[in-house]
Amino acid sequence: MTDLRFGVVGLGARSSLARHAHRPGEGAEIVAVCDPVEQQRQATLETYPDATAYGDHRELLDLKLDGVFLTTPDDLHEDPAIDFLRAGVAVFVEKPLAITTAGCDRVLQAAYESGTRLYVGHNMRHMPVIQTMRELIQSGAIGEVKAIWCRHFVGHGGDFYFKDWHADRSRTTSLLLQKGAHDIDVMHWLAGGYTTHATALGGLVLYGGIEDRQDRTGQRFSEFVSNDNWPPLEQKGLAPVMDVEDLSMANFQLDNGVFLSYQQCHFTPDYWRNYTVIGTHGRLENFGDTSGSVVKVWNSGRSGYRLDADQVVEVASEDEGHGGADPKLVDEFVRFVRDGGATLTSPIAARAAVAAGFAATTSLRSNGTPIDIPALDPALVSYFDGGQNR
């Protein structure tokens, strides 16, 4: 089997995904890496010593690559993705697909017109806890889904999202979109529909009062993250530009009549997601979202408070990358580049997640005004849902 030739553009924390595709002699190899920061390039070449390093993604367009991992900051997804798609290079775009609904539509249109394969890195669809909940729902354990609630406790928020580009709305739109795109995609997947209507409230209620700021241009993620940074108001060296919300609460109505509620807080002591799915014959809920977590199902009848459940499912997990999700995600992309076919992730679903997050952010910043989501061109829906085949 001839090795597929891959590049990696954007050498921050999520670029580590690409190592799962680096199997020289076994089907795939990282042959080019790209980042404007020299320090990032040199550090990455320690992992891929035979690769060539570049400072601008356009230098990779003529390398005859089979595919590229685009793990740049969010505002640098849209235009580079379009450049590679038009050059005939299959693209893995780390979520979110773009930071606006219109940006997503531009990327989808470029993939459609070029016929080049597009894949979006919504790795949570491969997470064991999410797959466990989906299997229970599809088995009929709680009947027909009517509502999903998600509480996202982002305990590391001050370190992960308020010390670099994530805190700048011009680069993310919002954390309701940037961070929430994962959860919105999961809720869409579990509910079997996409958002048509959104409302939200929220604000920068805690970190906005911290005046200690620092420009971290060129720093690596590991240089400013520590579990010792507690309590939240004791954080130091926050981003010079910080205009995204640290508390968001959104409600969504789906095209199939299901309702979603999403809460995101970036200054909790713990860091995990809790999903509650309510159906016509019961409900289920996850406790934990990594190794050792369980999903509980209540469906035998009415009761008062019950700590126990009618069914408790232990979630299988692996230690490698989000409970084993990351290597599965990359394996699926590599297979998709080589052979095509169906994938667990979906560019249409990725657009739907961004559109919901963008609409909710628009609502939040206009005092909760209800926002409708523009429909996507049916030709694009048909093309991507059909496996990107002409």
TrEMBL record:
The lineage of its organism: Bacteria, Bacillati, Actinomycetota, Actinomycetes, Propionibacteriales. It holds the Pfam family GFO_IDH_MocA_C. It comes from the Bacteria. SUPFAM superfamilies: Glyceraldehyde-3-phosphate dehydrogenase-like, C-terminal domain (SSF55347), NAD(P)-binding Rossmann-fold domains (SSF51735). PANTHER family: CONSERVED EXPRESSED OXIDOREDUCTASE (EUROFUNG) (PTHR43708), OXIDOREDUCTASE (PTHR43708:SF8). Residues 4-122 form the Gfo/Idh/MocA-like oxidoreductase N-terminal domain. One of its GO terms (molecular function) is nucleotide binding. Residues 134-371 form the Gfo/Idh/MocA-like oxidoreductase C-terminal domain. InterPro entries: Gfo/Idh/MocA-like_OxRdtase_C (IPR004104), Gfo/Idh/MocA-like_OxRdtase_N (IPR000683), Gfo/Idh/MocA_oxidoreduct (IPR051317), NAD(P)-bd_dom_sf (IPR036291). This is Putative dehydrogenase. Belongs to the Gfo/Idh/MocA family.
